[in-house]
């Protein structure tokens, strides 16, 4: 009798697990039809920022590979960004980055805010807080060498200094 009950429970549990597995699989497949809006703005939205801060070609390249994906309205999406729920996580991450600093919205920043943001740029890069480890883990080209960090820091300090001088004139 005990063996029969055990077999019945085992059979029932297996059926339940199969149903749960099927439902989860169906939910994952169905979720692929829903995705958040992509961050595909125009590169020209960065023109003012580039013109004002005057990065060298090398620093501009670093900004493009290590910063602009999360801190502008133009994101280069990897192949796996089409997979739900990864795409929702990425969109949330990009939205958070743009909320903190959005180079595409540079024209809307006050002079004081621009000066402060450039200070934050060099501090975060110098302390290796940016780019985030979760980003460089999947975007190996965004991993900055000591030399690249130094170039970005020097550029950001110069831009911050230029903004500070403009503020003093006001």
From TrEMBL:
Q: Haem-binding domain spans which residues?
A: 25-160
Matching InterPro entries: Haem-bd
Q: What is this protein called?
A: Heme-binding protein
């Amino acid at each position: 009798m005990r063996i029969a009950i055990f077999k019945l429970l085992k059979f029932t549990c297996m059926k339940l697990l199969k149903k749960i597995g099927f439902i989860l699989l169906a939910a994952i497949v169905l979720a692929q039809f829903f995705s958040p809006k992509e961050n595909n703005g125009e590169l020209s939205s960065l023109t003012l920022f580039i013109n004002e801060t005057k990065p060298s070609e090398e620093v501009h390249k670093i900004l493009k590979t290590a910063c602009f994906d999360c801190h502008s309205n133009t994101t280069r999406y990897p192949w796996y960004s089409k997979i739900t729920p990864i795409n929702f996580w990425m969109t949330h991450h990009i939205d958070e980055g743009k909320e903190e600093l959005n180079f595409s919205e540079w024209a809307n920043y006050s002079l004081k805010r621009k000066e402060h943001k450039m200070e934050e740029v060099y501090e975060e890069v110098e302390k290796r807080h940016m780019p985030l480890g979760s980003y460089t883990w999947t975007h190996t080209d965004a991993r900055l060498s000591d030399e690249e960090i130094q170039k970005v820091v020097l550029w950001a300090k110069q831009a911050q200094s230029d903004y500070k001088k403009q503020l003093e004139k006001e």
